Amino acid sequence: MSAPAATRESRRRLSWSAAGLVLIAVFAIAVPFASPNEGRTTNFDRILEAPTSENMHWFGTDDLGRDLLVRTAEGAQVTLIVALVASLVSLVIGVGYGAIAGYAGGRTDSVMMRVVDTLYAMPFIFFVILLMVVFERNFFLMFVAIGAINWLDMARIVRGQTIALREREFVLAARLNGASGTWILARHIVPNLAGIVVVYLTLTIPQAILVESFLSFLGLGVQEPETSLGTLVSAGADHLESASWLLLIPGGLLAFLLLCFNFAGDRLRDTFDVRESR
Amino acid sequence: MSLPRYVLRRVLGAVPTLLLVVVLAFVLVRAAPGGPFDEERALPADVRANIEAAYHLDEPMWQQFLRYAGGLLRGDLGPSYRRHGESVNDLIADAFPLSAALGLLAMAAALLVGIGVGAVAALGRDGWRDRVSMTFALTGISIPVFVVAPALILVFAVQLGWLPAGWSGARGAGAWILPVTALALPQIAYIARLTRASLIDVLASPFIRAARAQGLGMGRVVRRHALKPALLPVLSYLGPALAGILTGSVVVEQIFGIPGIGQAFVRGALDRDYTLVLGVVILYATLIIGLNLLVDILYGAIDPRVRHR
Predict the structure, then answer these.
(1) For a designed S-S bond to B262, which of A73, B72, B111, B250 qualifies (C-beta 3.0 to 4.6 A apart)?
(2) What is the tally of structural domains in chain A?
């Protein structure tokens, strides 16, 4: 923990980014209910209309006359869900792998970590692209693929923490009481990893968001009529000159979302001093 | 460990990674449901058999892999599945110079500006310069390239009209400015953060205090003494930076309409030109792994302690 003044500053910034995230979540969930418009209803009388207060087209309409406000909210929902599920995938793999490696120690540990090092050197993003090309933008696969990128960092951090926990008295006490390795891992080690894992999640979620929107931008991720922030930005980039709001609104929301996560993650990491130990 | 042994070990260490890349990429592509020549209308059986024989798709998988790997060793990435009569090598060779120039410019800009901004922030620690540059850096990390690039076009090409929006038609130096900026921005942000953190660490160490105590000015201390050790983390970031720039170039070339490898890659991905996509993935992976290897070796040469870990 840092000095009180720094902590207060951290806390203030943390609450700002938390407030931002809550705001985005509320926006994403509430808008489709509150608006009289449907995200998929086209209206060819009102295409590419600039933001107006009329009929709640606050964000304007796109090239098919669909309401951008609702579409942005729906896109944000998809982006958030993909990022959360993908991060959960990476969490499960990373925590499992890291905890086993760290707890087992010795040869098992060094082999397992060598595998992580080897995978680390691979440019995964291109494999994700390859995967999406080959398997035709499969939604489920996207979760797995993004999760499969992010678990490496998680595994390293969890392993470091597990090694520290392994030597603690309560683990020794459990072992003296005859607890098995699996029991100790599941009941004593993993629960104690929760703090560090949550902190680290705030850093993996924005990465997952970035990958999803990158794929969607290229046309390999979320497909029409489904939408995500990346898909919307991609559509907006095609209408730069005539309808800049189509780019600026979803793009701005995406950047704001990432900024909040990065801000929160940065602060949490500094506060709890999470470092990768190798 | 002596330096030659260290180098050898590192080189040998990179081999399994590279092999893994090739095997994984190959298997992934071959695992695709449906062949590369499946169209909406089914081909007559004999035509299909002929095509498959021409591309050796009728051989067992391991034989296909050996054929492909053998080709790779000779630097041959095979024929394109979609563009008849053209090889993946041709497609890449056509596009490579442009992409390489773009990437190198972006890398140079990222290093120059990133280190500069980071140093300014570290020296004015907790002051307004620090705050401004670190807010800029966090924002730079948070805005994806595919938002930055169209936004730059919107402001500097559409609104202000200072720079060309696309590639075709405008061949001057101006056409490079926006794509390079878009590519470099996130890397500038990362490098600035790295430089700042590491320079702050270094500036707190005793040898800097000693240099200051001898009456050396701050500027001279930073330039002559602090910057070199402080840049080690930046050196090890070069590999990830290249990965970031390659990833970004896929998007940037698409947005600006630059006929480079990134654009070829996206086109290949969208019309399922498997060999082209496979070739580009292997090329990119080799570049990144190669740069990481080079950085490792440099690191070992600069800092002998690394060799004994």
Answers:
(1) B250
(2) 1
